[in-house]
Amino acid sequence: MGYEFRLLGPLEIVRDGREVTPTAPKLCVVAALLVLRRNRLVQTSEFVDELWGEDPPSSAIPTVHTYIYKLRKLLDGSGAGSADDLVHTCLNGYSARIPAEQVDVHRFEHLAEQGRTALMRGEAEHAARCCAGALRLWRGPALAGLPAGQRLSAHVVRLGEALLRIRETRIEAELRLGHHREVVSELVELTRAHTFHEGLARQLMIALYRCGRRGEALAEYQRFRALMADELGLEPSPSLRRLQQSLLAGDPVPAALPAGEAS
Question: Carries keyword Transcription (predicted)?
Answer without folding.
Answer: yes
